[in-house]
Amino acid sequence: VWIFGYGSLVWRPGFEFTSRKVGFIRGYSRRFWQGDTFHRGSEKMASAGTASPNTLLFDFQACTWGVAYEVRGEQIAASLEYLNMREAVLGGYDTKLVKFHPQEKDAEEPILALVYIATPQNPSYLGPASEEDIAAQIIVSSGCAGHNIEYLLRLADFMRYFCPQAEDKHLFSIEEALISILPCLYYTEESLEET
């Protein structure tokens, strides 16, 4: 079984796997339109829109980059039980089968993979918002899995270092908005040397 992750699963799968591949799925855009009152948000922040983790929006012409994990044997039941709790029960995500295209040049056919997606019918689905509003939500949101700033920055770093050829305007626009709100988070090597 292959499991495709496009958010925190790219750096913190939380389950044992046999192999992993960087690649993409077609027909979906990554969006920070899903609320969270557990992993990266809290119940007391619900009125402010909670955190803004990822979901996928059906978009015929788009593709979303991430990581697919292969699980075998005893790993299958354990990983699916873990992900059902993490993504479906606590996150409200539904599961779908998608075609995953590995980044490797010698890859043959696409691989069928399981993916977790939040739909507009999900009670935690927030819907569209400006990148500035999403960045403002991210700054004030944290939960048991950590601060939402970490979520955004780790995802942006993954895209930058593992998928440099890919475009994700939504993600990088939110990162840019976050930087403009909190410039003290970023230091260049020159500024560190001067201090």
From TrEMBL:
<dbReference type="GO" id="GO:0003839">
    <property type="term" value="F:gamma-glutamylcyclotransferase activity"/>
</dbReference>
<dbReference type="GO" id="GO:0061928">
    <property type="term" value="F:glutathione specific gamma-glutamylcyclotransferase activity"/>
</dbReference>
<dbReference type="InterPro" id="IPR036568">
    <property type="entry name" value="GGCT-like_sf"/>
</dbReference>
<keyword id="KW-0834">Unfolded protein response</keyword>
<keyword id="KW-0914">Notch signaling pathway</keyword>
<keyword id="KW-0053">Apoptosis</keyword>
<dbReference type="GO" id="GO:0005829">
    <property type="term" value="C:cytosol"/>
</dbReference>
<dbReference type="InterPro" id="IPR013024">
    <property type="entry name" value="GGCT-like"/>
</dbReference>
<keyword id="KW-0333">Golgi apparatus</keyword>
<dbReference type="GO" id="GO:0016740">
    <property type="term" value="F:transferase activity"/>
</dbReference>
<keyword id="KW-0963">Cytoplasm</keyword>
<dbReference type="GO" id="GO:0006751">
    <property type="term" value="P:glutathione catabolic process"/>
</dbReference>
<keyword id="KW-0808">Transferase</keyword>
<comment type="function">
    <text>Catalyzes the cleavage of glutathione into 5-oxo-L-proline and a Cys-Gly dipeptide. Acts specifically on glutathione, but not on other gamma-glutamyl peptides. Glutathione depletion is an important factor for apoptosis initiation and execution. Acts as a pro-apoptotic component of the unfolded protein response pathway by mediating the pro-apoptotic effects of the ATF4-ATF3-DDIT3/CHOP cascade.</text>
</comment>
<keyword id="KW-0456">Lyase</keyword>
<dbReference type="Pfam" id="PF04752">
    <property type="entry name" value="ChaC"/>
</dbReference>
<dbReference type="GO" id="GO:0005794">
    <property type="term" value="C:Golgi apparatus"/>
</dbReference>
<dbReference type="GO" id="GO:0007219">
    <property type="term" value="P:Notch signaling pathway"/>
</dbReference>
<protein>
    <recommendedName>
        <fullName>Gamma-glutamylcyclotransferase</fullName>
        <ecNumber>4.3.2.7</ecNumber>
    </recommendedName>
</protein>
<dbReference type="GO" id="GO:0006915">
    <property type="term" value="P:apoptotic process"/>
</dbReference>
<dbReference type="GO" id="GO:0006986">
    <property type="term" value="P:response to unfolded protein"/>
</dbReference>
<comment type="similarity">
    <text>Belongs to the gamma-glutamylcyclotransferase family. ChaC subfamily.</text>
</comment>
<keyword id="KW-0524">Neurogenesis</keyword>
<dbReference type="InterPro" id="IPR006840">
    <property type="entry name" value="ChaC"/>
</dbReference>
<dbReference type="GO" id="GO:0007399">
    <property type="term" value="P:nervous system development"/>
</dbReference>
